[in-house]
Amino acid sequence: MLNIQTFDAHAGGNALYKALAHPLMGEAIARLHASLPPPLAIYDPEGIAEALLAMYPHAPAAIFVHDTALIGKARAGLAMRALTDLPGSGARSVLIAAFDASKAADRIRPLLPMGAVLETLDAARLPPAMLTQTGRYLDKLNFATNFAFFRDDDALSTRLVSANYWSNHGAGRVRLWLRLFGADGAILATWEQALPDNGGGFAIDSREVRARFGLGPFTGQLFLHAIGVRGHDVVKYALDTFAAGGGPSLSCTHDANAWPSDRFAGLPAPRPGETVTLWLQNSHAVPIPAGAIALDRMGAEQPVSLDREVGPFATVALDAGATLPDVAWPDQIEIRAGRHVVRPRYEIARAGRTRIAHVNVERDNLRADPGIPALSPLLGRGYLLPFPILDRARFRSIVQPTPMATTQTSLPVRLDIFDTMGALVAQRVLGRLPRNHATAVEVDDVAEGHAELVYDFRDGGEADGWLHALFRYEDRASGHEAECSFGAHIFNTAMTYRDEPQSYTGPPPGLTTRLFLKLGDTGRRSFSVLVYPASAAWHPVSTTELQLYGSAGNRIAVETIQIACRGSKTVWPDEIFGAAAIAAAGANGYVLVRDTTCRLFGYHGLMDGRGGFSLDHMFGF
Question: Which of 170, 437, 529, 572 shows the greatest Cβ crowding within 10 Å of its Cβ?
Fold first, then answer.
């Protein structure tokens, strides 16, 4: 496992990790190492040497610390030594493993061995023009970065869409620094793109990138770094993948969730006639060693390792069915990624159609919470995981609960099923599912509506609040499919439990909604299924504004709809606003779903006229 700390559920993202993982940091560290004559000593005042050496392997002769309690303890495979031993160490160069380290350098300069070179990590900083906050290098706003699976190979193309939501928080001119890596990790292109002001939408189209830089077919990853941001340090986007020349393939995925994890879950095993390809994309400038990546049937504890190295920033296609030939849907596959990759994509090919979806982070820091089975009645049904039931006449809607923490040995769950007006139509008790279960349930109790996966302890069991599921939708006529996955929250209640409900803008009952709904492109219609989940009693109906924005961030039109509590509604922007308004919004326009009365949960996608469609959960800002 790569020995790095990336993300903490309470403290948020680790800016140090994102600083070390930046592609330009890799180039700068290589130059820095080349300038430091051996033997090298590292002074580690902030405890980051282990992460630094994991990301950029280099063999120091010694690691020095000033904390007497640490002397003799191991760090990066070396016993730490007292800083006062540095003068007699014989080091010819000393690296202070810290940024903004000029004061630390002044303090230890008298301790340097005769003639030794002194450097700090400030020598590997990003250029000043790429910093949002110049006063503190490791400010999280300096590293608003993410990756995207990016592809243009004559059969499939990709289009990333989002909006300059940072301008809503007072940002001035925001721009993206972009770098495209090919399958072998080679740099294919580097460029910058200015974003429109006033919340304007933008897109990055693989076809345009390929033409601009004269590239051949590629399947790789796009690194995005937003500069000049305010309010958010995460780059959020939706990514459409579609067939060239009007072919039948179409899918949509959410942003990459830029934090590597030791494990990921929610990878479905193939059915007969399907190929499930896991796209492994190295997120770092250090190779992934052979054997460091493995697949396992969920709960089997018999991982099968990838027996090849994956180069820096390289992309490798791993056939899940060939790796685990004895698994088949509805088996589930666990990815042991060793913190080398961010949330991977997988591709399922079947009968000439391709769809792409993402797995989710499997947490290793959770324990069962005895408070959840004993939740106060004031919290109603507690944790809910809502998902749409699409028009039953056209679609099959299937749900599969997925273990999403290494400590989850069972999932005590049921399905609550609602029609579009919020009436409870049915309940299905799934029981206490074991970790290695192979249960997938078709939900066809209503013509259209939504269902919620909830905890049910009638058969016992434990819970930790990290309840996830995979949702699969199949067009009965065309055979096209889409799938997505997400996790549970407590929704729309004035009472709270720990950090739930989330997305409060103030004290309870301050839940609001701000969701991004992309518009369709040529030949494809945009749609969204908006769900109004409520753990306990809340407003009988929502007051939901659909705000249509143009590419430049200008608001073109506003329409108000109502959704019944515990109900749902399918939204078609072209029907609500009309063709003229949609045309005025332009190719990069979008709809902002805004509600100050409740938190809605939404799924969005595209539909074409050939039985193709996409679906994934929406993002907010």
Answer: 529
